[in-house]
């Protein structure tokens, strides 16, 4: 018997993250990085001057507003940030745009703070249920052998 689909929930498995095809010609990482940086700066409470100053303090060398403009411009293909720059950027903007971009390209999701504890609790609940089910199987088998 086929179950009726739940119109409110949709397809639960459609949202399972999958790694992106980074070798695809349509995959322009520089553009994606620049767009993520631009989104982060728009959502950020600080202006670009302050983001640059905060980044400068984090990495120990000057990061100017003009550098941030170049990194966040999809047309500037010579400005691709390294990992240190990305970490400092996400920290300075108090956003996780670059972290989320990287995770999504790898087929992952990012959990922050208490979300990680809730995920661990859910995993433990699933493990407990699997153990209970296995114990039932073993008990049923042993009862049948008497």
What features would you describe in this structure?
The protein is mostly helical. The protein has two domains: 26-108, 434 Repressor (Amino-terminal Domain); 111-146. Helix content is 58%, strand content 0%. It contains six helices and no strands. The longest helix is centred in the last third of the chain and has 31 residues, at 114-144. It is elongated.
Helix/strand class: mainly alpha
Average of pLDDT? 89
CATH secondary-structure class of the largest domain: Mainly Alpha
Question: What share of residues are in beta strands?
Answer: under 5%
Q: What's the end-to-end separation, in Å? A: 36 Å
Shape estimate: elongated
Give a short synopsis of this structure:
The protein has 146 residues and is mainly α.
Give the key terms.
mainly alpha; 146 residues; 434 Repressor (Amino-terminal Domain); 2 domains
